[in-house]
Protein 1
Amino acid sequence: MTLEEKMHINGYVVGNFSDKGGINHLEDLINNITNDNIKSGFSLKEKYKSSLDLKPNVFLYDEVFMNILFDNNIHKMINKATGVNLYLVHIQLRIAYPSSKGGYINWHRDTHFYNNHTITGNIPPVYKLIHYPALDGQETRQLGIIKGSHNFIFNSKLTDMLYARIAKPIIISSDRSSFIFFNTSVLHKAINPVLDDGSVRLIYSFAREEQLSKYDGVLSAIYQKRLL
Ligand SMILES: O=C(O)CCC(=O)C(=O)O
Ligand SMILES: [Fe+2]
């Protein structure tokens, strides 16, 4: 299957950052952040229960967060995979901790519509690229995803959630250099971390030009400048 076919049929593709220098730098930075050795002006804050996000923003913390995308020609890959021009609109660095609910975020589609009346999330759905670094060298289960589920949706939330629980998910594990790029209307969930230290995810969101006004213009302006 071609990249475009995989993206359309499965709702996601898996890739690798080949730039080892960038990865080493990224690992060092993230290790410092998780050890509470954070640059002044930045801190970890709770956005969702059982997780902490680097605030006020990730792209001003260090250039590597943006460089790794350009050093690996990510814009070419994602535009080819989706067939549209996408722009970076958000970067989130998050530590997820074990939760009694079985993961800080359970089965969901970022974009969904149930019972024909409520639309939640973006139309058309935005895309995310997530890197789960293997900081301690251990590759642990991070994300469950139901292959192809972006191509259909049950009318009721109950049925959709039952389907997510019955279908066999694809599991994405933490890894030094790999990432998943997916259509956010696919069913996905964060897997409960095994260690109390939690597990890190670096989340990049990409949207179309017409959707940029909903997001922080500074980040997408920097991104667009680098595309030139
Ligand atoms: O943190 C994760 O593993 C999943 C995050 C997620 O669902 C999202 O960013 O849409
Ligand atoms: Fe999500």
Protein 2
Amino acid sequence: MNAAEIFVKLCGEVGNFTQRHTGISVVDAYFGPEDLHPAKQSTEKTAEELVSDIHQAFDTLRDEIEDPLRMENMMGELHSLNVVVDWLAGKEMSYAELVEGLFHITLKKFPENEIDKIIQLVEERISEFPGANLQDKITNFGSDGEITGEALQRLIEDELQEKSVEIGTMFRERVFSLIGASVPDKGVHYEAVRNQPWSGYNWYQGGFKSLNQFNIDAKFNKDTLQGVIYHEYEHHVSNLWREKAYLNSQHLELSIVPLHTGSCVISEGTADTAKEFLGIADDSPRISVVNALYGLRRMTSINAAIMMNEEGKSADEAVDYMVNRGFRAQESARQSINFISPTAQDGRPNFFAPYIYTYFIGRTNFVLPTYLKAVEKDVLPEFFKTVYMNPYSGSSVTWNKAFEWM
Ligand SMILES: [Zn+2]
């Protein structure tokens, strides 16, 4: 087997291992050859065997892969998978070591004075909106256009389906036209689901199609729903380019998309920056409140995750924190515990517990500053080319190197 085949096989095996321990596979999408399909890989391998195979794969990669960015990308991915295996095998590690090992970023709690600053920003921007005090204003703001249950289901299955066609056109007209290249797109199918730890999920199906699921147990209003739609659609777009790159290059490792690696930091970062990419980050009073609230909510969710996973605080304490400092509704804060809690409801390790960092850190430490620099230097076409046409740029391990030209 060559290095890329070994890589795909290992991802599948680690996927089967995480499935066994948490109910969720680390493999998020696969569109490669049938014989390397994760479902056809061993489900029996022990943690020791997997770690030993990963170490052997490092050597093979070093010997075989010549393109340095490609090699660093693949090594970074395998390093993360090694940490995934160690974590679920019960190896002693702190939450900070887990997050840093998976995502190659530094875990840091936001100090309360930084939270104060962003609360102050929300307060300034929301001042003209109705309500007796800040809490009241944020509650009113959130319930404006709030939609739940069956109405939400109808919206998702009818109107969003149309909206996605519109967003697809926007990507073609505003982003791909700058690149001067096109990508096949068979569209996104929308579905409402319940009982999930996340609020929305893009399942890339291969063959240039996606399934977008929205969790209708989560509370949405018109702003948060819009945020999720753009976010999930960008995941679809970035996978379209990845599949195209795979078909053109026949580099097998591109046909598998693992979770919990440096790639997630960039893929969540680009998804959270989709509105800027499409030039729809308008500065209406409503949007400027939404943007400030976005920062406050992502930062307080990260702090709540650290409280639960690192400081041993209870779910109630984390909920109180998100309500008091993030100005979240009780119910919505409670819902988000499913995503950040160290254990899932079935008592097994919560596979998503370390994941909350990828969004905010991906956007603010990687994607947004590079995007803004590209705007300033008037090199947006090259920026988008690097993001979408060089699949090896898309990892926290390789991002800065991929943009050295800028
Ligand atoms: Zn996402």
Protein 3
Amino acid sequence: MGKRWTIGEINEFVEKNSESKLLSTEYRGFSQKLLFTCSCGNHFEKTFTKFKNKNQRKCDVCQPPRPSR
Ligand SMILES: [Zn+2]
């Protein structure tokens, strides 16, 4: 199984791997949506799984969701 992330580690990951900023101060599990600020200033919510594994690291305006198949 995957590693257990702490909010601090997630914050570090977000800083290193995206232009977005993490606003959430608590992480309760992979299904929880975290709040981010995009580099454009928009706020958006995303689970860390999507952020990290599916490369969804910006808001829906900067990175429109692709239709899934
Ligand atoms: Zn944006």
Protein 4
Amino acid sequence: MRFPPLYGKIDLDELQITNGATRVPEFDLVIIGGGSGGYACALRSAQLGKSVALIEADKVGGTCLHRGCIPTKALLHSAEIADGAREGGKFGVKSSFDGIDMAGVNSYKDGVISRLHKGLQGLIKSRAITYIEGYGKLVSKNSVEVNGQIYTGKNIVLATGSYAKTLPGIEIDGKKIITSDHGTKMEYVPKSVIILGGGVIGCEFASVWKSFGSDVTIIEGLSHLVALEDESSSKQLERAFRKRGIKFELGVFSKSVTTNKKGVEVTLENGKTFSAEILLVSVGRGPVSANLGYEATGITMDHGYVLVDDKCRTNVPGIWAVGDLIPTQQLAHVGFAEGVLVAEEIAGLNPSPINYDGVPRVTYSDPEVASVGLTTAEAKRRGHDVVELTYDLAGNGKAQILGTAGSIKLIAEKDGAILGVHMVGARVGELLAEAELIFNWEARAVDVASLLHAHPTLSEAMGEAHMALAGKALHAHG
Ligand SMILES: Cc1cc2nc3c(=O)[nH]c(=O)nc-3n(C[C@H](O)[C@H](O)[C@H](O)COP(=O)(O)OP(=O)(O)OC[C@H]3O[C@@H](n4cnc5c(N)ncnc54)[C@H](O)[C@@H]3O)c2cc1C
């Protein structure tokens, strides 16, 4: 008999046969989907002594590892090197940009993915998780069918993730009209690109392709790029992109898209027309939940998302859901946190619910946009008595050395805790670790102002911003 578990061990004597499908012994958890949310839940549960079956239809690591976070950040790093080669003269280094070798870029990127993939497979094996290759379908409140076999769990965790959406009338052909799935695997640098959607993914690809030498135009229906960020950050990114020659049209939706021999033509609702070699559709991601037995099992859903409470419990006892499948921020570290939360809740550790305001967020474009906590608009909407301070990175030694522009904006309750930190500039994503602690530990400006920051680092700007807000600015006016 062919038996699918690749890593874990199952006693074959315990097998029972039911209605033609093979039934294997019950697990503490059966997890459908081995992306960030699913595998984090598997690893933590196994660590807590639970028996776990992890079902994955494609590759463990999911979107983030194979077509999301990791490949895009590798592309962005190649882009940074390209800009470094172009701009060497500014720093007294003789260098020139002679072009992009996509085979070389892909070999570097795929090498990173492959090492991380192997590491993750090893980790799963070492924790004795039963890894099942195949497409799982929920067939009852406590069982999942894969390849004609039934896996039963005291708990079922749904972690089937998300897919790249498109718009009505725009058909993804993978050649001229693509999504990020294709964008991370390109074998050439397009001469020109139109990007439909100026959110995080759209802006990151715009940044890569501009550095690689493409002519880039972003079309965004909302009034700003990265519109979920504080308006001040969006405006700074727009200024920086404009300076880099990245073009964009804001506050206007596309009306039609056609392809021709040369590429694509996009007509906007305001009548303007744009042509390019390819079109990247980056208009958001939708939950993977159709035809998986979720609704049939009585799980409450909304627009395909599985609805959960603050411990990621669905309305069906024993069924949980995590990651991009539920309507929380679609970020890998949110998926990790939800997976761990579920594992710990099942193990009886009673973990605290996740504070989604305290989730760090980064757009890894050049310049980076990073934030944690509330925007000014949201803080006011929630009735906070808000004070703000913006520290210009021009006053920071390391920013001058790197040649980056940007700022750190603090939003605080008057005489109270920091409510939000919003940053723009090279490498500001690395400053989020401290910003996250400040926000989540409800520090006040005066608490942070007394802490030392190494000189000369970008992190000094974090200290200076808090000193200024506490009324004792050193290298800033005010
Ligand atoms: C281009 C891009 C860049 C991104 N960059 C970042 C970033 O820099 N930082 C960040 O935090 N987030 C980033 N994200 C978001 C991040 O990738 C997701 O939030 C994360 O992958 C969600 O994890 P998940 O486990 O919910 O879903 P997924 O990672 O999508 O995993 C779901 C898994 O379930 C499997 N599956 C689905 N249905 C079944 C089934 N029926 N049976 C078995 N298996 C099934 C799939 O094959 C998949 O492997 C990016 C996303 C994209 C697309």
